[in-house]
Amino acid sequence: MAGKTHFCKRRGIGALTASHKRRNRRGFLLAALIAAMACGLLFLMDRPPICTCGRVELWHGALDSGNSQHIADWYSLSHVIHGFLFYALTRWLLRRPPLGMRLAVAVGIEAAWEIVENSPIIIDRYRTATIALGYSGDSIVNSMSDIAMMTLGFVFAARAPAWLTVSLAIGLELLALFVIRDNLTLNILMLTSPVEAVRDWQAAL
């Protein structure tokens, strides 16, 4: 009898593990589907697929009209940090769902931001409140890269010790601050409560 009970418990654990793995895979597939839907919505919003300059650069480091038009730029660092933050948030709020499902939630949040960020009201807000005077929104390839960068940050945070993730987030913020006088923290500040002195300092670069 004891042997049978032990066997049943082992079967239950195995079934639970298999169910967990299935939900995890479904979460990763759902994350990919959400990203694909965001891509489709951006097409419907008439966002340019690639930079209107007609080329696609892997890295665009200059602070000019090419920002947010190519695959990666200095603002890509902010999206990696998004991944760090979304991992922490979903781990705190969604303890039971597997990693794949939590990633799907994170991709949903990031995809929603990409849609909102390319709406006329936010584009105008960037132009009036930040140093992005000529900002006209992202190309679709850049938006998809932003979602990928967030995913990279999320997966990194899921695998790395918390101290390393926090240290890297601080390092990325300081690097962007030093190079372009902008980062995620200042971006949020200038969008929500612009400080003229900060804007003047950024524009002097």
Automatic annotation (TrEMBL):
Main localization, broad class: membrane
Keyword vocabulary terms for this entry: Cell membrane, Membrane, Transmembrane, Transmembrane helix
Domain of life assignment: Bacteria
Keyword Glycosyltransferase: no
Bilayer topology term: Multi-pass membrane protein
Keyword Transmembrane helix among UniProt keywords: yes
Compartmental location: Cell membrane
Family note: Belongs to the UPF0314 family.
Protein name: UPF0314 protein LL253_12395
Organism field: Sphingobium soli
